[in-house]
Amino acid sequence: MYDDETTVSGVKVINMTQNILTYTNDNGNFKMEAAINDSIVFKSLFHHEKRIVLSATDFEEVLVIELKKAVNNLDEVLIKKEPDFKTFNPVESNVTLKNQILEDIKRNPHLYQKNPTGNGNILNVIGLVAKLFKSKKPVEPAESYATYDELVHLFETDAYFNDILLKTELNITEDYTNLFLQFCENNAINSKLLKVENRFLLLDSLLKCSKEFLEILNSDQKD
Fold it and tell me: Which domain does 53 fall in, by range?
């Protein structure tokens, strides 16, 4: 697998027909069980998603896939010096984050719960978010913390921290993945743990977050 410059590693390869997942290696290669008419999806954070349906000729030789880079063209912006910087307020930031998630749930309920039917499911999720993001003790802003986007990127590209780990080790189902990663951001995981050498410490932090997340989730379901 390659783009217009080089081979591409860390691409998520999904056999949608047989529900099989793998990733390309450092050389851009991958192996996967498949059959004629299987639908294959290729996902990369830095490339456009690509879908193909396998034909008989695809099994006659090595399958070569080309991905197109995703280029973000931004509008012109004006940058000016801001003399007074607002002091970081963890409590206010937490409230803002919760409100943003609630608004996103209303617009995209399918990202937070499988097959939503009617407003009842949405209201249940909103109630759950209120519990997950309730006010906590302020966190001192002495360190930088892993953002939601950084965690999404990690689970999209890393060979270890992936969908399989979410399901088998953290017990987070696909329908709650987005909400869980938002919850992790809210729990202030040190961004240094995203480095490869701190992988064990990151896993420990994610396990603690998943335990608390599931406890709140189970409590909400009982209610």
Answer: 1-70
